[in-house]
Design a protein that fits this description.
CATH architecture: 3-Layer(aba) Sandwich
Distance between the termini: 30 Å
Radius of gyration: 17 Å
Number of domains: 1
Strand order of the largest sheet: 3-2-1-4-5-6-7
CATH superfamily: NAD(P)-binding Rossmann-like Domain
Largest sheet: 7 strands, parallel
CATH class: Alpha Beta
Structural class: alpha/beta
Number of strands: 7
Order of helices and strands: EHEHEHEHEHEHHE
CATH topology: Rossmann fold
Length: 249
């Protein structure tokens, strides 16, 4: 399927590695100018250099997306390139692992700040810019844990469930104004976010996927680009899983 984003400007948060990096590379490869945003600007710059080496166009931006002023600045960076047409609220962290009754308060605040508040900030500042640009499409990166639980991860599960609800709400509000909003729910994807797991834990995670493996970042990117494209023009307010059968068990 040939998808083109020529003439479009995209903002991708958490784009310094993993799923976000794959999405930024693919968007640039399809013709979009991409604002590659990450906590550390030097990490984002590395992705920009990879995009440039492939003949694409991108700029790097750094900052903590749990700060609304940072997200507002990221949107302004995109607008300065010619508007905001595509937005992927992808930044996320895993957080501590502990039962709900023992979960550290600081960990709760950090996970909610990055995994939920930052998505709201992206919508809050991105939607007006997108309306001014004539419309566009948004993908919020949720998770399979936006529909099921995972013991020891109350903050992450709560945030991702909320991202799905926020997606549906925004989609209803802007469906007649040229903006589509969808959520993608990856299962466990083989990215740096999982790099700290030992072999036994990785094998345990793999066994939870009927496909018999972890997912790949490019598989999540492929669905994301479709949802951002005009090929998905009648799809909004939806939550799409990329889970190797995880939730089918």
């Amino acid at each position: 399927m040939n998808i083109s984003f020529e003439g479009k400007v995209a903002l991708v948060t958490g784009a310094g590695s993993g799923i976000g990096e794959a999405i930024a590379l693919d968007l640039a490869g399809a013709g979009a100018q991409v604002v590659v945003a990450d906590l550390k600007e030097e990490v984002a710059q590395g992705v920009v250099e990879r995009i440039a080496a492939r003949g694409g166009k991108a700029v790097a931006a750094g900052g903590d997306v749990s700060d609304p002023d940072v997200v507002a600045r990221l949107v302004e960076t995109a607008v300065a390139l010619g508007g905001l047409h595509l937005l992927v609220n992808n930044a996320g962290i895993g957080g501590p692992s502990a039962p709900t009754g023992e979960y550290p308060l600081e960990g709760w605040q950090q996970v909610i700040g990055v995994n939920l508040n930052a998505v709201f900030y992206g919508l809050r500042f991105g939607i007006p810019a997108m309306l001014a640009s004539g419309g566009g499409a948004i993908v919020n990166m949720a998770s399979i844990l936006g529909s099921v639980g995972f013991a020891g991860s109350p903050a992450y599960v709560a945030a991702k469930h909320a991202v799905v609800g926020l997606t549906k709400n925004a989609a209803q509000e802007y469906a007649t104004q040229g903006i589509r909003v969808n959520a993608v729910g990856p299962a466990f994807i083989d990215t740096p976010l999982l790099s700290h797991f030992d072999e036994a834990t990785r094998n345990w995670l793999i066994a939870k996927h009927p496909a018999g493996r972890l997912g790949r970042a490019e598989e999540v990117s492929a669905l994301t680009l479709f949802l951002l494209s005009d090929r998905a023009s009648f799809i909004t307010g939806s939550y799409h899983l990329v889970d190797g059968g995880y939730t089918a068990l």
